[in-house]
Amino acid sequence: MATQSGIYHETYGSDMQLRPTTMQRVRLALVAALLVVIPFVVDSSTQRLVNTVVIASIGAIGLNVLVGFTGQISLGQGAFLAIGAYACGLLQVYFAVPWPIALLAAAFISALLGGLIGLPSLRLKGLYLAVATLAAQQIVEWVIINWDPIDGEINGRATDALRIPGNALFGNADLRLNNNDTLFYVVAAAILVVVAMATTNLFRTHIGRAFVAIRDQDIAAEVMGVNLYRYKVLAFMVSSFIVGIAGGLLALQSTAISFERFTLSVSIEYLAMIIIGGLGTVSGSIYGAAFIVVLPELLRSVGRALAGTDPASLSEFNRVLPFVQEGVFGVVIVVTLIIEPEGIQRIWRTIKDYFRLWPFSY
Amino acid sequence: MMKRVIVLLAVCAMLIVGSAGAQSGEPIKIGAIFDLSGATGDVGTPYADGVIAYVTALNESGGINGRPIELISADYAYSVETAEQLYAQFVAEGVVVFMGWGTGDTLALVSRIAEDEIPFISASYSASLNDPNGTAPYNFLIATTYGDQLEIMMMHMLDQWEADGNSASDMRIAIFHNDSPFGTDPIEQGETFASGAGVGGVLAIPMPRGATDFTAELQQADDFGVTHIIVQNVSSPAALLAQNVFDFFGGTGMVHFGCLNWCADELFVNRAGAAAEGALGAIPFTPTTVEVEGQEGPREFLEARGQTLEEASLHFSQGWAAMDVMAEAIRRTLDAGLDLTGPNIRATLETFEDYETGGLLAPVSFSAEDHRGNRALKIYQVENGVWVESSDLIDLRAME
Predict the structure, then answer these.
(1) Could you give the CA distance from residue A354 to residue A352 in angstroms, rounded to a whole number?
(2) Measured between alpha carbons, how far is B255 from B85 in angstroms, rounded to an integer?
(3) What mean pLDDT comes out for the span A182-191?
(4) Measured between CB atoms, which of A52, A304, A314 is closest to B85?
(5) Which of B70, B96, B111 is nearest to B349 (CA)?
(6) Which of A136, A233, B198, B394 is 20 to 30 Å from A226 by CA-CA measure?
(7) Portion 139-168 of B in contact with A at CB < 8 A
(8) From CA B324, how far away is CA B142, in angstroms rounded?
(9) Closest-CA residue in chain A for B133?
(10) Is A102 exposed, middle or buried (0-12, 13-18, 19+ CB in 10 A)?
């Protein structure tokens, strides 16, 4: 683990610490405090937005494991999310499985199917692999739309939207997630913390280092004894496991899911998250997810404040806003990438370095 | 300097007092989500305009019992996730009722709507949303459900088919549908009706999103031996399909073509051109080419702004009618001296009996057991580029 100069370790224990400096620990404590404080200080709609950020962060970390850390480009994020969501939903609909078990099972099912989808990865790289995962995206979408048993019923009528039941845990209605944003936040944020820590630690193990070696130069990695096939499929499984959790959370957050939530545009949105946040970093995934989720809301809020409440001007504003949103969104992404191609995570590191080195420039 | 500040404060105070005087009473907050830029934006935009116009007109005439309406709305671009976020945001801002849009998002919101006790009228007429004593106690459907629309369309087509000397067993219906919860919603009811009526066969064919040609799907229908095509989609893809049908089967009349609610409109006729001739429409809302009393309001509103109802399309009156039903429920609740709470407005809606919108749609009735406003509509047909009446009101409720 690289640390700044001047930091010496005298024991293996201190050498292995995730956050060796005091400043890092202070920042970690602040983030932990912020996580705890959020439900007490925000209103219900902001809480929901935060929950969406948390789910997106988990999904982005999962995708980053595959794309950022292992270098395997994927356009199948929507498919992996869908597998997690439907696995979690169907287990509850057909077998009345309590949601924590359904969520965990969904993660394992996603990992299994993710491994299957990853099978062509030994022979395919780069753009070719991206197209293969795109095929997976299309197949999963087709299955959701056309396979009747996974559609479920509403009022005794078949419907394309899978209705997720009340999600009560052990018969306790207070432990429902889909209309209790605070409880949902507690569960999802705890999962995010676990996923973030597990992923960070994963890249300190031989498995994670094998992933990074494959990303940087797969032939050299093979020469060094890394079993390419095994680790590439494993990367797909680990990634799908995490993305499956995000998908399961999506199902638990809502009362109905349909393929409309898992289209190709979702896959592209997630790729944008990790590119803007920073490829190959856990914190970058979270920054990117927050950026992509919050920016449209921010633009909408600013627009609404400018438009006021008069229906006529609101009407005009509503008509213009989507185009402004798309435009600003595109501009911000392009500008971010021009300023710092390595993403928000790198910008944040540069800011930290500036203050750490101040008043010297290096 | 001090003098300037005092003058400025005085002006501000006058402005505040002045604006308060224009409309007395606390505003009634209504939430709304519209699709202006998403997959159904072509029909979503005039619908949104209709809702907004009704609120504007209502406020100009003094609001409801002197209380202005504050419409809190946004474009959700047909994204379920955005709909959920906006719904939560608007409910947090204190809206008492909500005007929604699509099937997928309304279904996703059903449980929240029930928990929050927010009366909800969406532009989705999915029968899945009619469950007053179960999962959807606060959802109301002002118009004929998609399933009923399809059943009435099939009934009408079958009558015509048999009147022309054909037998039901020779009738083969292809349902071309949007590939979404909205599109697939009526299929089962249609299949049940068709098998009961002895129709030769029904085939559901999904219409891929963003397709620029449906010839492959039409080949599938042709192999099936299609005699009738019914479309459950929005206007733009339906118009494209009509043109493909025109080309594929060599002109109109080779197969009978019909559209349900969201594609039977002026936009469809304009886009499909000659291919639209003879097409049938199961339309719960009166087209702008057929005069009814209820169109006076929207027509006057638009003409005062240099526009016409014909340009705005029937979806404008549809939005207007939807908002009218909700506003009437609020008015009756206030008239009864009750607080404007979700349960009170819901109870008021459940007392609606044959509420007239001036013919914009069939009279609306709700009960504690049934939140379908009506089960009736007229079939229209395109003649010389305009929708004309092809049947009287066909009422499934009356047939039961």
Answers:
(1) 5
(2) 44
(3) 94
(4) A52
(5) B96
(6) A136
(7) 147
(8) 10
(9) A155
(10) buried
What's the CA gap between B61 and A90, in Å, rounded?
Answer: 51
Angle at A251 between CA A248 and CA A252, to 5 degrees: 90
Helix, strand, coil tally for chain B in percent (to 5): 50, 20, 35
Cβ contact, residue pair A160, B108, below 8 Å: no
Kindly determine whether residue B108 and residue A157, on different chains, have CB atoms separated by under 8 Å: no
A chain contacts of residue B36, beta-carbon cutoff 8 Å: 318-319, 322
From the list B223, B166, B220, B175, the residue with the least C-alpha distance to B198 is: B166
Test mutation, A49, A155, A317, A324, chain B, max B CBs within 10 A: A155
Asked casually if ipTM beats, i.e. exceeds, 0.85, the reply is: no
A3: confidence class by pLDDT, cuts 50, 70, 90: low
**With bands split at pLDDT 50, 70 and 90, how would you rate the model's confidence at A158?**
very low
In terms of Cα–Cα distance, which of B159, B147, B260, B256 is closest to B193? B147
What is the distance between the alpha carbons of residues B271 and B240, in angstroms, rounded to a whole number? 8
Report the predicted TM-score, pTM, of the whole model to 2 decimal places: 0.84
Average of per-residue pLDDT values in chain A:
85
A318 vs B contacts (CB less than 8 Å): 34, 36, 48, 73-75
Q: What is the mean pLDDT of residues A76-93?
A: 91
- Provide mean pLDDT across the span A196-221: 91
